[in-house]
Each structure stands twice: as C-alpha cells, then as structure tokens.
Hints:
Helix content: 40-55%
Shape: globular
Radius of gyration: 18 Å
Strand order of the largest sheet: 4-5-1-2-3-6
Number of strands: 6
Order of helices and strands: HHHHEHEEHEEHHE
Number of helices: 8
Structural class: alpha+beta
Strand content: 15-25%
Distance between the termini: 58 Å
Amino acid sequence: MLDEDFSKPIRKVTGITPVDSYLTGSWEALGNGAPVLVALAQIASQAMISGVPSPLPELLGEAKAILHAARGRGVIEIKGKHTGFEAPSRMLAVYVEIDDEHTIAFRDPLQPEITVRFLEGFRQLCECGLVVHHLHRDFSLTSAGFHLARSITFEEVEKWLNLGTDINIHD
C-alpha cells in the first residue's frame, strides 16, 4: 500500500499553455480539438482579465460577420465534424446559433481556407474580449460583444455571411 497524499495535486498547475503535455498524450482530446479549444479559451480568459482594448483594433471581415450573426443569441460553438470523409470536412469551424432552429456554419470543405479564416476571425474576437468561453466548445458574446455586434450592418458583412451555410435543425 502506498502512503500517498491524494489531497495534493498530482503535478503543479501553473502557466498552462495550449501545448501542455497532458493534452498531447490523449488521443481523444486531440480528436476533439482540445489544444485549439484550450488556446481559444485561454485567449478569451486573458482578455477577460485585461479588459476590452480601447480603441479596438480593426476587426477582420470574418470576425465582424461572426459578431453580426451572433447578435441575437450570442451563442457560438467551435466544433469539428467527425463524420467527414475528407480532412477539410473534419476541420474545426465556427458555428453561430441564429435562433432556436437555425445555425450558420462558417466552414467550406471545398475551400478550407474559408474555414481557417473564420477560425482566425473568432480568435480575434477572443483576443479583443468580445467572446467568453463557457464549457468545452461553447462560447458566447460578452456584453461588449453584443453591443458591437448590434452596430454592424448586414451590408457591411454580407459578402462574409454568404460564405456560411445555414443549417435548419428541421431539415
């Protein structure tokens, strides 16, 4: 029998980075995009501590489109599709709930660069304190995010919104 003190952590947890070794050893964590999700969560958390930069940097068109799409409910998910046959279909992408029946998926399996550009736009929203991480792949707009989102017109972001795919849960 070992005389271990289980009231103490197994290892000291300070300064976790997105590539901390505990993530690289888990095939399931990697398969669920944990390193990227952890990185985005950390960026959003750091912005929560630091506050919204003033003035805000010029946002990417993709970031503005995500904000505009999320202006009603504010719910954003970062997820991949495990069922996709080709790699671009399985990539992590930004999904925004428009209402209780519609979601916009900012992904394009034929043009993976579009998927990546929207992921970068989302990273920028995290960095600017416009998004907060909740659980696993779930994020939402912050108060500042809602405020800015409601000032962005459809015409301003139409070309980026048209790159998304509207998913109706009843289809």
